[in-house]
Design goal:
The chain is an alpha+beta fold. The protein folds into 2 domains: 139 residues, 3-Layer(aba) Sandwich (Trna Endonuclease, Chain: A, domain 1), CATH 3.40.1350.10; 65 residues, Arc Repressor Mutant, subunit A (Orthogonal Bundle). Helices cover 32% and strands 25% of the residues. Strands 5-8-9-10 form a 4-stranded mixed beta sheet, with helices on both faces. A hairpin with a 2-residue loop joins strand 1 and strand 2. The radius of gyration is 20 Å and the shape is elongated. The two termini are 32 Å apart. The model has no long low-confidence stretch (mean pLDDT 91). This is TnsA endonuclease N-terminal domain-containing protein.
Length: 227
């Protein structure tokens, strides 16, 4: 679907959630987020802060082509013969065409209720046309720094700045040794634009961080990645 333009604003594609979300909850954070997918934008829903963090991490990959939030439920049968339904949190499609059904659960839920075992029965009932693989995500799969980096990257991609992005990478390749992001920004003379451009370059793989953790002004970067 192509976004409709209204008074210069491109209206994002609506959520495709298969079920109605109860927006009022004292136990979890619920809402919507607009993701940029190639040349379009799409609204997706989340029903917890964990779901929000996970979809931001997934979208920071750079090869996300489509997100189906709360897709149609999958019917499956347990060994005792009881019949059930499971709704994946997201089905994501990458630019290479691969489709992943994503289940997101807190690690304590996975361990307490043997959800990974249950997911095996769900996978066995998964139609071939629905997804190529199934992914289970919890807070144990990423660090707080990775989540913060993904959140900041999302904010920094709301307003593209291709000139700054190209310039910061060119300046990086003029350096003969690794340098901290703060010095790279000073050499680029881009000011605040330089930090956002450098941040995007790191997440997108155009610059290589030489340390793990939260990306900041003192992050050491290298221009080893070929242009």
């Amino acid at each position: 679907m192509i976004g409709i333009e209204q008074q210069g604003f491109i209206v994002p594609d609506p959520s495709r959630s298969s079920r109605k979300i109860n927006w009022r909850s004292r136990a979890s954070c619920r809402g919507t987020i607009v993701l940029s997918l190639n040349s379009r934008q799409q609204v997706v829903v989340y029903e917890s802060l964990l779901e929000l963090m996970c979809i931001l991490l997934i979208s920071s990959r750079g090869d996300l082509a489509d997100v189906w939030d709360q897709p149609e439920p999958i019917r499956f049968t347990l060994p005792d013969g009881s019949h059930h339904e499971h709704t994946f949190d997201y089905r994501v499609t990458l630019t290479d065409g691969l489709r992943y059904a994503v289940a997101i659960k807190p690690i304590h839920h996975v361990e307490k209720y043997d959800f990974d075992l249950k997911l095996g029965y769900i996978c066995a009932a998964l139609p071939d046309a629905f997804a190529d693989e199934v992914i289970l995500m919890s807070e144990a799969d990423f660090t707080r720094a990775q989540a913060l980096n993904a959140q900041r990257y999302y904010e920094f991609t709301k307003k593209p700045d291709t000139d700054a992005d190209d310039h910061i990478v060119r300046v990086a390749y003029e350096q003969h040794e690794p340098t901290v992001l703060e010095d790279l920004i000073a050499k680029s003379r881009l000011g605040g634009r330089g930090f956002r451009a450098g941040f995007r370059a790191i997440i997108e793989g155009k610059l290589k961080p030489l340390s793990h953790g939260k990306i900041g002004l003192q992050t050491m970067v290298s221009s080893e990645v070929p242009i």
